[in-house]
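Example record

The entry below shows one chain as it appears in the dataset: sequence first, then structure tokens.
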Amino acid sequence: MKHPLTPIDLREHVRLGIEHIRNSVDRRRDCRPYFRFNLTTPPVWSQHEDCDTPHTVGRFLHALNVCTGIAGPLDDAELLHGLRKHMFASCAHEHGFAQDDVGTDSHPPLTVMHHQREALLGLIAVWRLLQDPQAERYARTLVAAMEKATRVTGTYPGATLGSRGWQDTNFATMTSGRAVGALLVYSRTFDDPLAVELALRFARHVLASCFGENGELTPAAGTHIHSITGTVASLAELGLVTGQREFTERARLVFDSGLLPYRTRTGWVKEGATAHRGRGEANCTADLIEAACLLGMAGSPSYFEDADRMLRNHLLASQMDDLSWVVENEGMANTDTRAYEGLRQRARGAFCFAEPNGFHSYNSDLTGAALQGIAAAWQHIITREGEGRVRINMLLSRQHEDIRLTSLLPQEGRVILELNHPTTVSMRLPPWTERQTVNITIDGHAVTPMMEGDGLTIDALREGTRIEVTFAQPEFVTQERALGYETPYRVRWLGNAVMAMSGTNPCMTLYPALV
């Protein structure tokens, strides 16, 4: 746990997450990921399971791909080629889908529809990172298989496809909805119009069956919140790509209403859509960060505040940078299915399942999704608004080709902008900012801030200009309820950053204790 006043460096969090990916795979088995980790009950271990591939392989490849622009190219050919080998092996089947590879004589490996999104994103990553044409061929075959299987009803005939055909027919239709975003990435990558048609098919089916008119969840949505949050982000993006605002508006309603009972202001999001106590999931938080950024780009910039707050607090706080509480094993050798050695190093940098203020458990697919959420936020910190004009949406440090943004929040309410080109800058001010406390200097000279809408605008500045914006950060305490937890959590804030929270955890507490 870092000191809560420490300014955020997203590059540091991404590099640490990538280090986890590098350390958590089984180098003896072509860098096969370990899916499940036990870090609390001796002996501690990481374990291979059916979700190793294509599910976690796809997650890891996609994260490495989208984080290249943040952390730079990955210098680990063994890892990339090993993950590619596993991904291609999953896809080398006549039916065209990506298949799991763990089974028994009585229960052979299954093709799980839930995993097809990760497989498609993994194939796209292989094509982008390694320029392997086989990745494009497998991706096109996979999309064609998805289209054929869903042509009649708009969703899959079952949750799994096995030797006896389609199985588990009573499943959540959200399995197809969560793939919409991956299909849009595929369409941009390979210029295949079939993907957009398929995305529209899935989206319309989900809207007709899983969400009410006011954003409420129906039984068809299922209880897997990550599939729901992934669908919400996908719908928001589909609306932006197609110009059909219905999708964006419905995503907004689910974000605001349907998912509200399952999340807190700090960014904790419950894993399951049930009333009983349960762990939160970093995947869900990352999805909502991405959804909020997309809703912000769709004309509702207030959602950038949600993205900033969820990222700044729960997602980054759930990254495990200090594993001193893990009791290392002594004298236990690794096996084909489990690793017992060096669990502190293997798990460091991962993003965990969490309670509102503490560690719960960890599976390795969480880190891939968490890094995707950070990459989405990174992309939207600074955006262009036409020639010679940029907008700062979130007060997080970033080097952009037009401007260098250094944020000292929450240590102090100060943001420094250094221009690389002549630029007009508009900056969203957080809603908690008291406007009378805002001060601006340009190259050391005080100027009167020009307030406009939700922020301020500084016109036509020359290359090399240095701007400093300062403002007060209010301190206050709120009471937050997490569904299933009997006792509310008291949270002390500075601006939109959590300084302390009630509750402790014997393994890892996310925030300093508020007494």
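Notes for this example: The chain has one domain: 10-382. The chain has a mean pLDDT of 95.
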